[in-house]
Amino acid sequence: MEKVLEQGNFRQSMSWLHTWGGLVAGWVLFCIFLTGAIGVFDDDITHWMNPEQKQTAVVDPASLTQSERAAMVEMGQRYLQEVMPEGHFWAIGLPSEDHPVIRLFWQDMQENPGAQLLDPLKGEPLPAEQNRQTEGGHHFVHMHFELHAGQAGIWLVGFFTMIMLVALVSGIIIHRRIFKDFFTLRFSKGQRSWLDAHNVSSVITLPFQLMIAYTGLAVFVAVYMPAAMYVNYQNPEDFFSELFEEPPHQAETGIKAEVVSLTNILLQGEQLLGRPASFVTVEHPGDSSARARVFGLFDPDEAFGKLVSQGSGRAMFNATNGQLMHHRMPGQVIDNPAYSAQQIMRRLHFANYGGYTVRWLYFLLGLAGAVMIASGSILFMVKRRQKSLNEFGRQTARVYRGIEALNIAAITGLAIACIGFFWINRLLPLDVDIRAVREIQLFFLLWFGTFLHAVLRPALSAWREQLLLFASLCLLLPILNWITTGDQLISYIVNSDWRAAGVELAALLLGLLALYSVRHLRQRQARQQADCPTRATIQAQRGIS
Amino acid sequence: MPVFMVMLSGLLIHYLAMGLLSLAMPKHFAQLNLDPLVVSEQRLLRASGWVLLLAGFYPIIQLWGAATGTVFGLGLLSLAGLLWIVLFSLRPLIAMVSLAVAACLGLALVLIDLFAIGV
What we know:
The complex is a heterodimer. The radius of gyration of chain A is 27 Å and the shape is globular. In chain A, strands 3-2-1-4-5-6-7 form a seven-stranded antiparallel beta sheet, with helices on one face. Chain A contains 21 helices and seven strands. In chain A, helix 2 crosses helix 5 and helix 18 (459-485) packs antiparallel against helix 20. Chain A has a domain at 58-127 and 246-333. By secondary structure, chain A is an alpha+beta fold. Helices cover 62% and strands 7% of the residues of chain A. By secondary structure, chain B is an all-alpha fold. Chain B has one domain (3-118). In chain B, 86% of the residues lie in helices and 0% in strands. Chains A and B meet through helix 7, helix 8 and helix 15 of A and helix 1 and helix 5 of B.
């Protein structure tokens, strides 16, 4: 008897944990899941978002000769020498299929970043009409792992991922009928349907959700669990150089020294690695501690299906005299079990080694995770709309209203902001100053707008209107693109540009799904009004006490 | 066989497995408005469902190896389950037709695979 009581108490406390932990974390986790799922296609979205770069490409990255690459590195170095002769870091990216231009990145002494694209033939900065300055699909990836908040964002995402693991385990404990209800999904039954949707989406995709949350934490193991590193190493850089079997990190000496010609370093590096380079970087340019690195070109076919990263090869040089300091050949695996384990989890999380089929699988399962979280948050309110549980005494109705508004903004609001980001990309003029940053600011502004809308409108109307707005933004995206750039879905398909076509086809499909949900919501509302509404539903609809 | 077709064959076999396993449960079979199955028929459905569930992992593991194959196989199983549940709950009859289509297509892919290996 006592044992039964104990069990009941345990389930009850787990249920409390699942409900409130899930609700609070759900708002952030939905964002992490949705942007993570979209971020699976980051390069394809960037491809769609920068049509100018593709149209004005003057070189074919696949057929560059070594002397052409050397000339490009020289142009990059000349530009960097002028802009930032003494800084923390330089990087010169050689033209690739996704970016057929020279990409320059740098950090000044205070490690503030800068970037510039150069014309690969003339070495001059690319004019605005040849390059739409945009963060592209990487915007979604950054939302996913750091919420655009840097190190603090990484910590925040890690914290909520832990809560997700807690919610998954407590959810398994409180679900009494995992196998009996394994296939049960009853539509149009109000609260029952939301519970079914929440159960089905969680139970069926549980292996994926556990894997993705756990490996997500493992990606940032050095950030989340840094204690061992700080106890055993004076400088975290020393830990990484030992791990990568490289010469130890050298601090700036303060003695000025010019960087030698990177052209020779590139040629030597390519010779050594036996493949074209993709990037040349310099650490501490202008200082006598300067080091240059040449990175070999990544070969997706070589990495296909391999859990342990083979590496594309890298060579390290003293950048003040051009002497080779260290190199690792392509395919040379770092022989360290802990590091390999972390690499495997990293690759499982990123899923970038299995081509498009695996990307689609992750995208769909990521969306299923988003549905799991959203249905849980909605269930919380649906349950309380029927009958208030009075958790907050006289303030209950007001708190419920706040939760409802946050639910709407976090779910449909974020969806609007995400598709809105594609609209912002096409509507913001090309010559706007710091355009890429402005795009992201407008994204957040739009998201905040949906929150205000959710606060000001009655809950059910807000849900319906936001879904409708989302559907229209999705369905009209191909037309917007046609008007603003002249590209359209049919021409994408005819030219077999499946990456751009895929973006618009996915938008159309999601738009249709949203329209279907709007219709469903409207039918249910009509039915509710017909059944002589109870006081509770009137209150919920008005959203006031 | 291209990666896409291997993954599709895994998805189809798992879809079939999920369909049979759910139909083996009386409460779900009742959604078809047919006479209930006898116990031996239920057992047959359940056993074939489990066999197919395991079989679906075979092409995936063959392609990716045991470690990655297990992860992707579970992913496909989840996706197949979701697709089946949504369709079967909304339109049971269309879902039954889709099950037949999945069976034919899955079989064709398996045969292509075997034939390709033979060559």
